[in-house]
Design brief:
This protein has about 80 residues and is α+β, with helices and mostly antiparallel strands. The protein contains two helices and four strands. The radius of gyration is 11 Å and the shape is globular.
Length: about 80
């Protein structure tokens, strides 16, 4: 999937992946896509809830080994 910015949140525990995701999305313009890579298993539920609360679209959520990869589209 194409993306405009990438955030490496590996090794960060809750709530830091969400805090850094919010900051990174704020640096994008409407329609741009952010790729987030995390190792915190809680980030799966957190990203879904964050997307629903903020209106930023969660395009994809996948697990690749011990990594969680998310693509979010800025609203």
């Amino acid at each position: 999937m194409n993306f405009d910015k990438e955030l490496d949140a590996r090794g960060l525990a809750c709530p830091l992946p969400i805090v850094k995701t919010r900051k990174a999305l704020n640096e994008l313009t409407t329609g741009q896509v952010l790729k987030v890579t995390a190792t915190d298993s809680g980030s799966v539920a957190d990203m879904k809830a964050f997307s629903e609360q903020t209106g930023n679209e969660l395009l994809s959520s996948a697990q690749e080994g011990n990594l969680y990869v998310f693509y979010l589209k800025r609203r």
